[in-house]
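Dig into my protein:

:::
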Amino acid sequence: MSWRIPRLPLLAGLDGYETSALRSDVSAGLAIAAVGLPSAIAYPAIAGLPPETGLYASITPLVAYALFGPSHKLIVGPDAATMTVLAAVLAAIFATPGVSTDRVTVAALLALAVGALCLAARAVRLGVLATFLSRPILTGFFAGISLSILIGQIERFTGVDIEADGLVAPVLELLREAVSIHWPSLVLAVGCFALLQVARAFNSPVPGPVIVVVLSVLLSFLFDFEARGIAIVGNIPEGLPSLMVPRMGDFPFDTLLVGAAAIFLVSFGSGVIAARSFGALGGYQVDPNRELSGFGAANIAAGLFGTFPVTASDSRTAVNFSVGGRSQIASLVAAATLMAVLLFLGGILRILPIPALGAILAATALSLIDLAALKHIWRVSRMEFIFALIAMWGPIGLGVLNGVIIAIAATLVYILRKGMYPRDALLGRIPGRDGFYKLHREAAARPVPGFGACMIQGSLLFFNTDYVRDRLLSVAGALPPGTVWLVIDASAIPQIDSTATAMVEEVQEELRKRGIGLGLAELHTEARAMLDRAGVINKIGSAMVFESIEDALTAFATRSDRAAE
């Protein structure tokens, strides 16, 4: 039995739902809630938020994505990388004197701002932003964030109040304050961390964080950890999140907007990578523009119910896949389960020890360091590996928020470097064969006497025009004596800007002085229109603009025949 839901933005994740899948979805929803509960309580600590906000972020955004998200299987929720950027934004906002608004309200405003950015990007089809941060840069950035998270757990592991920032300074401060270490907390944290690693190594059917939460709560109850000086979560408000519109307070609004943009870029980039990874696993395509609708709805719901920005959760989505979830019904079941936890288990969760949460966060941070990916990047491209290291250094050396700026700057430099030096190649003919071939690749290819042909591979834009001009003049200077034409095969030049049009005119004038005519072949429509508007086509002469390099050679042969007559 099945029913058909219209293909609208609403309920796309339930389109074509079959009721026979209900049992699988209920099982998946329960598993998602079980796996998500530990991180829901632990992650808010990264940003200095109360644990209940993590539970709220695991309820209302799931419902919103189920209603507006396109994917049948993607699960949204708190994310370690997003939380770390959020923590940096909150730190920047509350570093301003006179801020009176509380952290939860600012986090909710940031969630609303991120949701609005998602919907604005969806309206203008900017899903391409998901690929703005390349995989090497994201890999390095997440590794840097993971080290920041690890350092942030020193206080939860040891009970020592650490004030230093960075990577080395907190460790040195811990060594100076070694006499203040609360050893029972450290033993508990290390034990929980070891248990997590063992569960992961042996592929435990019960997720490690679930084991740690259950066991640490039981031990806390039996041995009264609070009385022994081990920090606990404390009271968690019993009841469901309520609808609220966060009020604008006295804080730097521009910092909030810049911070929201940073959170949006990182969370959307990592979220779509997760979506595409699971899409490949499930055999379906992911449309980043449609995902913007789901992420936007999820973040707006988060903001309206007093919590923080969210994105796709790879751990929860992985559980959904492994248990056999078929639709967003699994999200709704998970949300309902966590509602029940809020209503009935808040008293139990209050005795959850903080060192256990620190162990969960430390294990999560380690999972963000993808050594295999870094090794692959090193093997494939040393330059991309350098950019990955730059992105890694940003969060560690300059802070997470500045690290986002470093990652963006590294991306821009990487893009510019790729486009600054377009490849070029001289072309020639192979006797007895049609077409033109690159002389440096085909040993049998020979240049056509009197006819120079050169291919440029890449757009001609303001930042590479000097290089391309110098290359063209160098090519012209190396042509055999008696060459009277140099024709550029422009089939691999998708774009030309106004600076490049001036450069082409300059090259044409210099070649004319050398007695060489400049021709253009296979111009793209937009590139030709740009050259035409700039008057370059008229300067070169329409007779020297050809549909193909073969047409150019035919015209040259005809001209040579007439000259011979």
